[in-house]
Design goal:
By secondary structure, the chain is an alpha+beta fold. The protein folds into three domains: 48 residues, no CATH class; 212 residues, Endonuclease, Chain A (2-Layer Sandwich), CATH 3.30.870; 165 residues, Endonuclease, Chain A, CATH 3.30.870.10. It is 46% helix and 17% strand. The chain has a 15-stranded mixed β-sheet, with helices on both faces. Helix 1 runs antiparallel to helix 2 and helix 15 crosses helix 19. It is globular, with a radius of gyration of 23 Å.
Length: 485
């Protein structure tokens, strides 16, 4: 032991060097062999080689996708559609509804999404917390059998506590309740709302558990960004809204944030419930039975709108929303409207936007004038020139921060949900979006975006180039870290 101790004292620098070389080389080789995005591969290889020990550790924590190719992932993919596929609905022809060009987009969706396009639905847009939260609370307070709720952020503030109390009261009167909150999102307020829910007897869980636990650190970069509420298997809510007082004008006043959510009825609700049920099973290992969670009466048509859910995430569904966006831009003939709080498309999406604009399609992109994430705003600004010089129009909305994620094509098709147009949403987060073939809703979203454009400041190449050099350099440096923002 004394001799070994002496050797360690004498040769510890050599041992650390050897370990760092092996770790750095191993991480670099793994990144080069497994990453499909060349930018991500180059970035991780560089991190591993230039900082072998700490770079390898960082890659181990944040760079390895441990979900995509696991057996659990395959089982989740196969199981998610079982309950939703029990819905008996006839095939949908979208050409008479939205236009003949959308027939090919429907085929793309059939091959990209786990779910079928279902007709017979109704969809009602809800503008901000002033409309969304009362509608959600009304549904929760009227629940008779089951409530499933999932959110990225569920703050412990006046709105969050009101929502939590409604869930606790539903549980107390015998309603089956399950609440799933992302582990990172649960930390946005102190103490986390999960404590109040648990004290009230509500079964609540945190997606990916606590990523600060040592054994769970490898999953710290993977988050559930989905927003789902299903009541009695018949009424569903989804979109971009978390649960936060900042979206309620009576609380936030003039600084209220904007967002858009959607109330759904019809067969589509079974798809929302299926996504929740299998996220819940993945997190807690509890399987939710068909009754009371999947109401067979929900299969009855509630309207006439064809819709489908498009789940995406760092599993076998990676790239689903990315592919849907590319397909929508390819079939556009007249106008594309996009609103995103975090607009950092990759080169493939930038190319698709450019191609649409050069074909004569009017492409309008609305981003916040004031962003709640300063670093993301710097990175966004750094690459806006790549979009603008091809003919796309970029607008910075005035007023309060708008968290909406909306897209319409030719006033006939809409894509809404939780996904931002940035690398985190498109490759790292578990997201849930909905494609909707409904000219009436598309026109509503179009009017909302046009209203923002009417009062917005248009970004130009001249304006971007007129910024001081140091600011432009700062933006570019932050932009280099886009995959990690």
């Amino acid at each position: 032991m004394d001799r070994l101790h002496a050797l360690l004292i004498e040769y510890w620098p050599h041992l650390i060097f050897a370990v760092s070389v092996v770790a750095g080389t191993g991480a670099a080789v793994h990144a080069a062999m497994t990453k499909q995005d060349v930018r991500a591969a180059i970035g991780w290889v560089g991190v591993a080689l230039f900082s072998p020990l700490f770079g390898a550790l960082f890659y181990f924590v944040a760079g390895i996708n441990r979900i995509r190719k696991t057996r659990v992932s395959q089982q989740r993919d196969e199981a998610m559609v079982i309950d939703a596929d029990q819905v008996e609905t006839p095939p949908v022809d979208v050409a008479p509804i939205s236009g003949p060009q959308f027939a090919s987009l429907k085929v793309l969706g059939d091959r990209v999404s786990r779910f079928r396009l279902l007709g017979g639905n109704t969809v009602r847009p809800l503008a901000g917390g002033d409309e969304a939260y009362p509608a959600m609370l009304l549904a929760i307070r009227g629940a008779r059998h089951a409530i499933a709720m999932q959110s990225y952020i569920f703050d412990n503030d006046v709105i969050g506590r009101e929502m939590a109390q409604a869930l606790i009261e539903a549980h107390a009167r015998g309603v089956q309740v399950r609440v799933l909150i992302d582990a990172i999102g649960a930390k946005y307020s102190r103490p986390p709302i999960v404590r109040m829910l648990a004290r009230g007897g509500v079964p609540v869980a945190r997606f990916m558990t606590n990523p600060l636990g040592v054994m769970r650190m490898p999953y710290a970069n993977l988050r559930s960004h989905r927003k789902v509420l299903v009541v009695d298997g018949r009424v569903g809510f989804t979109g971009g809204m978390n649960v936060r007082a900042a979206f309620v004008s009576a609380v936030a006043g003039q600084r209220v944030n904007a967002d858009t959510h959607f109330r759904l009825e019809g067969p589509i609700v079974t798809q929302l419930m299926s996504v929740f049920a299998h996220d819940w099973n993945f997190t807690t290992h509890e399987s939710l039975p068909a009754r009371p969670w999947f109401d067979p009466h929900a299969t009855a048509p509630a309207g006439s709108v064809p819709m489908r859910c498009v789940p995406s995430g760092p599993d076998r569904a990676i790239g689903s929303t990315h592919n849907m966006l590319l397909g929508a831009l390819a079939v556009a003939q007249r106008r594309v409207r996009i609103q995103s709080p975090y607009f950092l498309p990759d080169q493939t999406l930038i190319g698709a936007l450019a191609t649409a604009a050069r074909r004569g399609v009017q492409v309008d992109i609305v981003i916040p004038g004031k962003n709640n994430l300063r670093l993301v705003d710097y990175a966004m600004t750094a690459q806006l020139d790549q979009v603008i010089h091809t003919g796309c129009r970029v607008w910075r909305a005035r007023g309060a921060f708008d968290h909406s994620k909306l897209m319409t094509v030719d006033d006939a098709w809409a894509y809404v949900g939780s996904s931002n147009l940035d690398p985190r949403s498109l490759r790292l987060n578990f997201e849930l979006d909905t494609e909707i073939y409904d000219p009436e809703l598309a026109r509503w979203i179009g009017a909302r975006i046009d209203g923002l454009i009417a009062n917005a400041r248009r970004e130009t190449l001249e304006n971007l180039l007129s910024a001081p050099f140091l600011k432009r350099l700062r933006n570019k440096v932050i932009w280099l870290a886009t995959p990690y923002l």
